[in-house]
Fold this protein.
Amino acid sequence: MAISCAKFWKAAARVLPLILAGHAAQAESWNVGSQDAFEPFNYTKNGVYMGIDVQILNEAAQMIGVTLKHHPSPWKRALLDFEAGHLDAVFQLAPTAERFERWNMVGPFRKTRTVFLTKNDSPFQDIQSVDDLDGHVVGVVAGFTYESRFDSHPGITREASKDDYTNVRKLLLGRAEIVVGGYATLAHVVRELNATDELRFLPTALIEQDRYIVFRRGEVGDSQAQRMQEALEQMQASGRIQAIIQSHLVRE
């Protein structure tokens, strides 16, 4: 039976707002920055951005109806883009009092064990105090925060690079005496560079720290942070985050 024009437009007036509202909810997306080439946590393979942290945050975002648009870059650039307002969020930051005061620190969603890497023939047997590094050249990633005593210690000569791959290459070439970084990432880089027979990790870690995704303060950033925090807490409670981490490390 034919429907009159009046009835058609009356029905459309009721249904169309619901359709548009649903489309708007599904279309919500956030621009998120991170360190590129940071295996196994975030990296590009065959044109797809992936890794432990990427999967954790993508699944958390999906739970709240959000799509993350990833913008990987050198770490210092990622922080600058976030501070300039070009990004909604950036991950994975170590905690500092200044960061908790300035931004919405969401998480933690995992931990990083920060360690020292050196050459097999290095005189270094262990680093138990940052004073042990006085007068030595240490490879670091530009813009990274490692540990408060290490970051502020004046006796260390820091050789800054854009990523851990460059740091390890400098170590192999003798441009750095030791490299500091997350164990999982450095172990991956050493394997990729076929340098397992040339390098070794020192036994004492610098620190083990939580990792966060951060949002700006303000009405929009506060709302985004609260929603992401709730999703991450659900994933932690269910064991999903640990399952993601384990699945990637097994593949490693």
